[in-house]
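Ticket reopened. Same input as before:
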Amino acid sequence: QKEVEQNSGPLSVPEGAIASLNCTYSDRGSQSFFWYRQYSGKSPELIMSIYSNGDKEDGRFTAQLNKASQYVSLLIRDSQPSDSATYLCAATMNTGFQKLVFGTGTRLLVSP
Amino acid sequence: EAGVAQSPRYKIIEKRQSVAFWCNPISGHATLYWYQQILGQGPKLLIQFQNNGVVDDSQLPKDRFSAERLKGVDSTLKIQPAKLEDSAVYLCASSWVGGDGYTFGSGTRLTVV
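Engineering reply: fixed in the latest deploy. New output:
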């Protein structure tokens, strides 16, 4: 079982729609969760972090965490073509040191 | 603040040759990471330093890869000899001790032919 799993996509949504990206993780001891955006040929860029159950909103982005289900999601409201990228979910593993494990990423395509 | 600096940006080598990558983390960040990202995959942690000590190198192919972090600041990652499957982007990241959410450098794209 992979430590962090994501659907590779692509997820296609029209401009203005809500994009919903999902992720599951295997380590019940994971405490911190992150969403990174990666444009083609660029390095990952942190866009959201979440540490407790529930929702966390930042502008058009909402991260959701459910530790009981070991599930993390990212909602992007009013999707724009500039949001087209690969979104990487990451979780810290309970190793005693900060070790961030990434999923394979979900490719999002927003069409005008 | 200045970001994580990496060099070179691109490197093309023949298999069995050696190559080295350099990383300078954000000032004050004690934790430094090297990740390998193969096309279409998520980043995979190769090695993690805290100051100049290694805290995790469980996924580093130690028969060909080596890394060091001098004086707890700059770091180099070396591959010798390179294989075709080492073609990837090598990402360096840094963070505060116990900090969350790394900052990544721009990466080095390695092509082994």
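The interface with chain A takes residues 31, 33, 35, 40-45, 48, 50, 55-56, 89, 91, 95, 97-107 of chain B (CB under 8 Å). Chain B has a mean pLDDT of 93. Please confirm and we'll close it.
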